[in-house]
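Please fill in the sequence for the structure shown.

STRUCTURE ENCODING:
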């Protein structure tokens, strides 16, 4: 006779629930719950809650926080340039120098400053979860203020590096080389690289609620990947471009049409139209199919 597989009485375990170690006591089962990764819906809610909070901030608070973030991102340029200038020439030197790119991101994110491409995920989730014209206006207001203040901040930082006797010539030459390499990409390639860069930043923001004490490692690992793979981020990669313009090696029109425009568009496509909408669709599908 086949064993009885009737579902348990109401109040018992779910029919498809499997206990791989049935001898665990209640404290051990609580420990299992604690060690399990959060559901996608939990991450969605956590990131969306951050976005709701950011949408409520005043324009002046967004501006000052965005300006601070732009200034902080200048340290990515300095750290990358310093590593490139003083590392010995080895086949793997580029991979080590790429670690400098993470410096500004660590400062900005751990200090809770406003960085534009983070907002391609956080403030979009509340809008797609509950669309309204009011939320759309708040999102566009935040995007405009944060992006403009980020650009002003990183441009001022690059101006100081270009005009003040802050660093030795090898570091200035390394920053020039970084900017020249970046601006050698044609506009279509710049756009595609920015799509991938925006996707990586959105992935980083998505992982933050689950990372806990590992947050700095997530920031360093994913932003290092942007630099190591030659991808671009509209603010993180802007310092070298502004530096070239301030020292007269790049026309200002190229800063806007060759760099800021394509990279801004690519970051929005990668962070919002691809990652954010797919993540939201995943959560909706998961929620609708749950009993």
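FILLED IN BY: designer on duty
SEQUENCE:
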């Amino acid at each position: 006779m086949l064993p009885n597989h009737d579902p348990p009485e109401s109040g018992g375990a779910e029919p498809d629930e499997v206990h791989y170690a049935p001898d665990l006591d209640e404290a051990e089962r609580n420990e299992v719950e604690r060690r399990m990764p959060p559901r996608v819906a939990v991450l969605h809610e956590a990131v969306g809650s951050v976005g709701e909070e950011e949408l409520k901030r005043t324009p002046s608070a967004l501006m000052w926080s965005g300006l601070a973030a732009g200034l902080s991102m200048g340290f990515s340029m300095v750290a990358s340039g310093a590593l490139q200038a003083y590392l010995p020439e080895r086949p793997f030197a580029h991979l080590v120098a790429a670690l400098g790119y993470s410096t500004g991101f660590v400062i900005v994110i751990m200090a809770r400053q406003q960085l534009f491409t983070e907002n391609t995920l956080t403030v979009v989730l509340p809008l797609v979860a509950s669309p309204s014209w009011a939320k759309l206006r708040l999102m566009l207001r935040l995007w405009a203020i944060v992006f403009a203040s980020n650009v002003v901040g990183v441009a001022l930082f690059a101006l100081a590096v270009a005009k003040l006797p802050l660093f030795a010539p090898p570091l200035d030459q390394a920053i020039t080389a970084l900017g020249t390499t970046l601006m050698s990409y044609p506009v279509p390639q710049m756009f595609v690289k920015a799509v991938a860069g925006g996707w990586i930043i959105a992935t980083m923001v998505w992982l933050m609620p689950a990372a806990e004490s590992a947050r700095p490692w997530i920031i360093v690992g994913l932003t290092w990947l942007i630099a190591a793979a030659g991808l671009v981020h509209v603010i993180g990669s802007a310092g070298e471009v502004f530096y070239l313009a301030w020292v007269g090696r790049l026309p200002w029109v190229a800063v806007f049409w060759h760099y800021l425009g394509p990279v801004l568009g690519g970051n929005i496509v990668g962070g919002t139209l691809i990652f954010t909408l797919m993540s939201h669709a995943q959560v909706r599908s998961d929620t609708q199919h749950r009993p």
